[in-house]
Amino acid sequence: MQLSDLVFYALAAFTIIAALGVVALPNIVHSALCLVLTFIGVAGIYFYLGADFIGLIQILAYAGAISVLMIFAVMLLLSRDVSESNPSHKKGKYLAALFSGLFAFLLALSIYSTSWDLTEGAEIVDSIGKIAYMLMGDYVIAFEAAAILLLAAVIGAVILARGEEKR
Amino acid sequence: MKGAETFFVDLARAIVNGLENMGMSALGAEIILLIIKFACIAGIVTVNIIILIWLERKISGFIQLRLGPNRLGPWGVFQTIADAIKLLTKEDIIPSQTDKIIFRTAPIVFIIISLMLYVVLPFGDGMAIVDLNLGVLYFISVGSLGTIALLMAGWGSNNKWSLLGAMRSVAQMISYEIPLVFSLLAVVMIAGSLNMSDIVNAQDKIWFVFLQPVAFITYFIAATAELNRGPFDMPEAEQELTAGAYTEYSGMRWALFFLAEYTNLFAVSALTAIMFFGGFKGPFLPSWLWLPIKAYIIMLVFFWLKWTLPRIRMDHLMAFSWKVLIPVTLANLVVTGCVLHFLK
Amino acid sequence: MVLDHDVRMLEKNNIIVTTLEKIWNWGRAHSFWPLSYGCNCCPIEMMASGAARFDIARYGYEVFRASPRQADLLIVAGPVTVKMKPVVQRVYLQMPEPKWVLAMGNCAISGGPFKDGYSVLPGCDTFLPVDVYVPGCPPRPEALFHGLLELKAKVLGQR
Amino acid sequence: MWGSGILKGLGITFKHLWERKITEQYPEERPKLYPRFRGRLMLNPEKCIVCGMCVKSCPNNVLSFTEARLKESKKKVLTSYTIDHQYCMFCNLCVEACPTNGLYFSHDFEWAAFKREDIKTVYEPDLTGLELLALEEGEKKSAEKEAEDKLLKGVNAMIAAIKKNPARALSKVVESEEEALKLSEILGDDESKIKKLAELMVSDKEKAAKVAKAFLIKGQKKEQEG
């Protein structure tokens, strides 16, 4: 095993343990903080794969902003005792097992059916430039559509937040 | 003169060569060099901050026609050392109702994050610890993690002032991150790179502060807010929130927060120097002296602002970000893009 | 064991011998961070002592903390009423060790003119371990400084 | 508008940064005190004529003294004079009342102390060589009698109070009003018992409470027996 493999396994173990923490911890705030660790672990895997731009965006947007918003929402909406705020749902555990088994099967199938072509020695340099050209070139319509969707969401949020105007 | 210019670079190379001659692999030598670099940064930053705090107390005194600390040592330079010794030996209180793990880890996370900011700063020609291609983006994204540490401190303390302070600081930091990034983006567009050394080299002829005055002003305001410094020190407004997110922290844990704030201050000042004032470039002196000099001058401006302006109200603060700074920075970006397009 | 004259001999030869305790006390004595607490007229003098003419910052004591967790010195500046007593007591207990108490003004020392009142305690030393009493009604800022310097000498073991 | 106010403010602070500082460095530089500054209250014992005006004028019981008479001239002299500064509020009434200007406010403000007792100032004039007259027997007796009279007056008032409204008067020594009523029933018309209790209530409250309790327990026993 090479050193780089070791790094990958360490990162993967870190991410999985943090993800398990999200599911298993009884305190929902602890879960949210574990989610931040998961995001950072995933970002580490991106770095490891050479996608440093994606990794940094993962940290900036997910770990830095979205998880903070989640913790915010949890803190604002939670009025019960926090230490038991993340109850385990034992009711649907067989259903959950079935669906996660199905999902795992699908994943294994897709991994098995991919050919995994290897390119030797093609180091990725300047990933941000390539991503920029792709976003603004080949996929510009998808990019703009996503932008319009987000804009609509922002306007909707503003209207909801303002409430009805009294006349 | 030539020796002074490349002193640290040569030293690093000598260490690596020495380690390799002792039979170490190239990777191992690199890792050891990295550890040495980190240790150096941590040491320099700590010493630096002791000086900084003294300087701030002295300058605040001078601005208010006072003398400031002047009893311990010449001009009171040992004052912060006395404070540090006292804080080190103070009782470490962990209130019984706190979320213990979060309460304990929050200051450590905060100081680690603020020290991580130094990784990409080029302190001289070829003197960045890691010369990342995406240096600016790294700085911003790691800096944004600081909100989580503050939120942890506020939540873990189980105190209403802490929580209110944390919420304020998080709202403030997230709102001001957007104009901060947009202002820096204008500079990045001109330089054509996210690498900090490249940005400094692009300022060979003219500093970006002259090319992008609007971006500089918006950046400076956003950075002040991002640092939670006066006049934007709402999160620890002691008249309303006792000490904000730090209310329950005592002794060394509180000192760590304080240390991290000043670490951030120095890092952001250095970033300002790099992005707008030509970084390590300057005549006569070796390059590794120019960045600290410029950063210190910018820091003095931060002090000056803090001790001049009164704190502004929270809703004004948020409205200023969303209704003024973001539209201005967006317009600035559009104008910059158009000009660049037509110049090409 | 190092004898006193040995220490003096070493100090003559520019070798400073000290103990950790001394260094700690040196740090503590030169950075009392007071808690912002007071009632009416003594705090006005306290504020004046922070201002330009008197400047408490010269001794490094200007860092008035709002949170008791970060304060070292409780300046009781004003009469403590029966109703205020549990609050002051709690604030004192919330401060981390080592901590000191300075009774500023006659109201804090003895209840002053209110000492016979049904609601005022006859002095804050009825429930706090006061280190220094600064008499006055209110004491001048310089008198407060004198009290602080006395406290400094006490912490340094000179008094 | 457009930050011109901010720039103005920055200009002012920048100007102040270089100005001469107005700080008085206290332990080295002494503050300039005005003639009428009221520092520590002082007494010039030589000027004191032991008239007691100061004590009468003090609203806060700061001042107290003891006196004696000279054997030959029967003149009053001061044996000790105590100024308990911790109660002083620097109102100047004693200084105004003093007919010989023996009391005065000094300019001493550095009197921080580590102990509360140290705040007191005690003057004990040197009286060696002077033959003092011991206090006359008659005077002593009259003082004792005065105290007795005062006690008697208090006791009589208390007895009257108990007879008038036993619940209210007795509730000071027992815990509840019910008990007070019970106690008054037990006491009944027994003058000697009421007098004993009233005397104790005036002189020693704790003892009175104990006695009242004893009365109550006795009364309960009697009830049970009866």
Automatic annotation (TrEMBL), chain A:
It holds the Pfam family Oxidored_q3. Keywords: Cell membrane, Membrane, NAD, Quinone, Transmembrane, Transmembrane helix. It is found in: Cell membrane. It is a multi-pass membrane protein. GO terms for molecular function: NADH dehydrogenase (ubiquinone) activity; quinone binding. Its main location: membrane. The chain crosses the membrane at residues 6-25, 32-49, 55-78, 94-112, 139-161. GO terms for cellular component: plasma membrane. Its EC number is 7.1.1.-. It catalyses: a quinone + NADH + 5 H(+)(in) = a quinol + NAD(+) + 4 H(+)(out). It is an enzyme of class 7 (translocase). Belongs to the complex I subunit 6 family. NDH-1 shuttles electrons from NADH, via FMN and iron-sulfur (Fe-S) centers, to quinones in the respiratory chain. Couples the redox reaction to proton translocation (for every two electrons transferred, four hydrogen ions are translocated across the cytoplasmic membrane), and thus conserves the redox energy in a proton gradient. This is NADH-quinone oxidoreductase subunit J. It comes from Thermosyntropha lipolytica DSM 11003. The lineage of its organism: Bacteria, Bacillati, Bacillota, Clostridia, Eubacteriales.
Automatic annotation (TrEMBL), chain B:
Keywords: Cell membrane, Membrane, NAD, Quinone, Translocase, Transmembrane, Transmembrane helix, Ubiquinone. It is a multi-pass membrane protein. It catalyses: a quinone + NADH + 5 H(+)(in) = a quinol + NAD(+) + 4 H(+)(out). One of its GO terms (cellular component) is plasma membrane. It is found in: Cell membrane; Membrane. GO terms for biological process: aerobic respiration. It comes from the Bacteria. The chain crosses the membrane at residues 31-55, 101-124, 136-155, 176-194, 206-225, 254-277, 289-308, 320-343. Its EC number is 7.1.1.-. One of its GO terms (molecular function) is quinone binding. PANTHER family: NADH DEHYDROGENASE SUBUNIT 1, NADH-UBIQUINONE OXIDOREDUCTASE CHAIN 1. NDH-1 shuttles electrons from NADH, via FMN and iron-sulfur (Fe-S) centers, to quinones in the respiratory chain. The immediate electron acceptor for the enzyme in this species is believed to be ubiquinone. Couples the redox reaction to proton translocation (for every two electrons transferred, four hydrogen ions are translocated across the cytoplasmic membrane), and thus conserves the redox energy in a proton gradient. This subunit may bind ubiquinone. NDH-1 is composed of 14 different subunits. Subunits NuoA, H, J, K, L, M, N constitute the membrane sector of the complex. Belongs to the complex I subunit 1 family. This is NADH-quinone oxidoreductase subunit H. It comes from Thermosyntropha lipolytica DSM 11003. The gene is nuoH.
From TrEMBL, chain C:
Binds 1 [4Fe-4S] cluster. It is an enzyme of class 7 (translocase). It is a peripheral membrane protein. GO terms for molecular function: 4 iron, 4 sulfur cluster binding; iron ion binding; NADH dehydrogenase (quinone) (non-electrogenic) activity; NADH dehydrogenase (ubiquinone) activity; quinone binding. It is found in: Cell membrane. GO terms for cellular component: plasma membrane; respiratory chain complex I. Keywords: 4Fe-4S, Cell membrane, Iron, Iron-sulfur, Membrane, Metal-binding, NAD, Quinone, Translocase, Transport. NDH-1 shuttles electrons from NADH, via FMN and iron-sulfur (Fe-S) centers, to quinones in the respiratory chain. The immediate electron acceptor for the enzyme in this species is believed to be a menaquinone. Couples the redox reaction to proton translocation (for every two electrons transferred, four hydrogen ions are translocated across the cytoplasmic membrane), and thus conserves the redox energy in a proton gradient. NCBIfam families: nuoB_fam (TIGR01957), PRK06411.1 (NF005012). NDH-1 is composed of 14 different subunits. Subunits NuoB, C, D, E, F, and G constitute the peripheral sector of the complex. This is NADH-quinone oxidoreductase subunit B. It comes from Thermosyntropha lipolytica DSM 11003.
UniProtKB/TrEMBL annotation, chain D:
It is an enzyme of class 7 (translocase). Binds 2 [4Fe-4S] clusters per subunit. The keyword Phosphoprotein does not apply. Residues 39-68, 79-108 form the 4Fe-4S ferredoxin-type domain. The keyword Transport does not apply. It comes from the Bacteria. [4Fe-4S] cluster 1 binds at residues 48, 51, 54, 98. GO terms for cellular component: plasma membrane. Belongs to the complex I 23 kDa subunit family. This is NADH-quinone oxidoreductase subunit I. It comes from Thermosyntropha lipolytica DSM 11003.
